[in-house]
Design a protein that fits this description.
Elements: E1 2-6, H1 17-21, E2 28-31, H2 44-55, E3 60-65, H3 71-75, H4 80-96, E4 101-104, E5 116-120, E6 126-130, H5 139-147, H6 159-162, H7 165-171, H8 177-198, E7 201-204, H9 223-232, E8 238-243, H10 244-248, H11 255-264, E9 268-273, E10 277-278, E11 286-287, H12 300-309, E12 315-318, H13 336-359
Parallel strand pairs: 1-2, 1-12, 2-3, 3-4, 4-7, 7-8, 8-9, 9-12
Antiparallel strand pairs: 5-6, 6-11, 10-11
Helix pairs in contact: 4-8, 11-12, 12-13
Residues 205, 243, 246, 272, 319 line the site of manganese (II) ion (MN).
């Protein structure tokens, strides 16, 4: 297990690399180039500059989140091969710089949906929440809500892309789940040889939330979806980002069984470990709580044990944290609560490992 921490880069993150390096037990940064538009090639010199910056702090740059897949590839547009060529070149560049895992998603239009970005908990902390009754009927209304506060800069919600919302929705009008599945396999089949050559593993992030929102197709929501993709593209370079929170946002997903199964099959390249707290207001309502098991609805000890006992040796990171201790910034991506998450997950891992050693 290699513990990492997501960092958006000097221009886009209030958190410094020095702060990340001071979190005990973090060996690497999950990096990205926020300003390269989806579809364009990530320039080699930019990747190397980021790597040098990260390594100067004693951290590794082996995971990227995300290299976004552009809409032309997702909808299977006539010119998609041109964009796939670009993606392939980005993979080659990243591999040459020592990157091992690329996290991406294949969700149409919205990378994630929440009803609240500033949901207040009784202890005064603030977090993200999803309350179905509060998700507007029209996607535009949700975006307006997000954009009302200009301090929110949300990954996956690039302003230029959002300005084009109507055009985007139109683009997906004839794309049903089957078409989206075919487009995903087409994309992966085309890039797998480059991944194999470059030593880069593609790790798909499950849908967040794991069901259709605004009538758009979703194809990475359940155990069977993950299984389908592993079989459709059997290369070991086609793998999963097991995001515990996203999977558990659908209570009929058996998260622990999914972690056990895909870890033992060697298909989890990257794990996002977090907790959620289900709300009584609706079967799909929840907020993102502290990582600690007793703070929410998930058993983090069971999750970490399922990874550990099934031979998981990939990258792991804490996921969204609350805003605590007066911190402000990118919703879900403050320093303090995620750092607590790192320490907690490392503690669980140490206890589980030493228990096993003591027994053997
Ligand atoms: Mn995640």
């Amino acid at each position: 297990m290699k513990m990492t921490f997501r960092w958006y880069g000097e221009a886009d993150d209030k958190i410094t690399l020095e702060q990340v390096a001071q979190i005990p037990g973090v060996s690497g940064v999950v990096g990205c180039l926020m300003d390269v538009p989806a579809g364009e090639v990530w320039p080699m010199e930019r990747i190397l500059a980021l790597k040098a910056q990260v390594e100067a702090r004693g951290l590794a740059l082996e995971v990227i989140e995300s290299v976004n897949v552009c809409d032309a590839i997702k909808v299977g547009a006539p010119d998609r091969d041109r964009w796939i060529d670009n993606y392939r070149q980005t993979i080659r560049n990243l591999g040459a710089a020592g990157v091992k895992v690329v996290c991406y998603n294949f969700m149409p239009v919205f990378d994630w949906v929440k009803s609240d970005l500033d949901y207040r908990l009784p202890d005064g902390s603030s977090t993200l929440a999803y309350r179905e009754a509060d998700i507007p009927r029209e996607p535009r209304e949700l975006l307006e809500r997000y954009q009302a506060d200009e301090t929110y800069e949300l990954p996956g919600w690039e302003p230029e892309r959002l300005a084009d919302l109507e055009r985007l929705l139109e683009l997906y009008r004839d794309v049903d789940e089957d078409a989206l599945r075919q487009n995903l396999v087409y994309f992966l089949d085309k890039i797998m040889p480059a991944c194999e050559e470059a030593g880069v593993t593609m790790a798909i992030h499950p849908d967040d939330p794991p069901y259709s929102v605004f009538g758009l197709p979703r194809i990475m929501s359940t155990r069977d979806d993950l299984d389908w993709l592993c079989r459709a593209v059997p290369s070991p370079h086609n793998a999963i980002t097991l995001c515990c929170g996203s999977v558990a946002e659908r209570p009929d997903n058996d998260l622990y069984a999914i972690v056990e199964e895909f870890a033992s099959r060697g298909r989890i390249a990257f794990a996002h470990v977090r907790n959620v707290c289900y709300l009584p207001s609706g079967p799909r309502d929840f907020y993102e709580c502290a990582h600690l098991s007793s703070a929410g609805s998930l058993d983090l000890w069971r999750i970490v044990r399922a990874l550990h006992d099934n031979g998981f040796d990939g990258y792991i990171r804490p996921d969204h944290g609350r805003m605590i201790w007066g911190e402000t910034g990118r919703p879900g991506y403050g320093l303090f609560d995620r750092a607590l998450g790192v320490t907690y997950i490392n503690g669980l891992w140490e206890a589980i490992s030493k228990d096993e050693e003591a027994r053997s």
